[in-house]
Amino acid sequence: MTTTKWAIDPTHSEIGFKVKHMMFTNVSGKFTKFDASIESDETDFENAKIQFTGAIDSIATGNADRDTHLVSADFFDAEKFPEIKFVATSFTKIKDSEYDLTGDLTMHGVTKSIKLPAEFSGLMKDPWGNTKLAFSLEGKINRKDWGLNWNSALETGGVLVGEEVRLVIELQFIKQ
């Protein structure tokens, strides 16, 4: 059995998230500095070793004040916890291009197991002869499970920042 290593292609990948603001609109953000890798059997990605790290200070939501608040001690506390990390514990093929990715997500000093549906988008050679593969992942986590508890009550009832965080991830890898 041959093991193949894949490295992230950061220019064609995005680690994004969405959170409700004032309980009725979504604010989107992403990590601009990250790394990921896959080690797998040449012919099948089931039980592949998958790892990801993202730099907390690279959070970008399109608003400098909000980004500064997110990396502060109120939220991620980037000074104390500079990265978010994911290590897969299983990658199970459900059918055709559908997988379940389970692993340990560590952020803000807390590690919890999460499960995300993953769609294998394909494998192909680019015009320069590099073999590439892609996965799309979407899922939901509750930020309070990782101690990200800051919020502000609204006069009209409810809170400023939603607890549920939707993950929207597009990954492209290059065969090493």
TrEMBL record:
InterPro entries linked to this entry: Lipid/polyisoprenoid-bd_YceI (IPR007372), TTHA0802/YceI-like_sf (IPR036761)
SUPFAM superfamilies reported in the protein's UniProt record: YceI-like (SSF101874)
Descriptive protein name: YceI family protein
Pfam family, one: YceI
Lipid/polyisoprenoid-binding YceI-like domain sequence ranges: 5-174
Lineage: Bacteria, Pseudomonadati, Bacteroidota, Flavobacteriia, Flavobacteriales
Source organism, top-level taxon: Bacteria
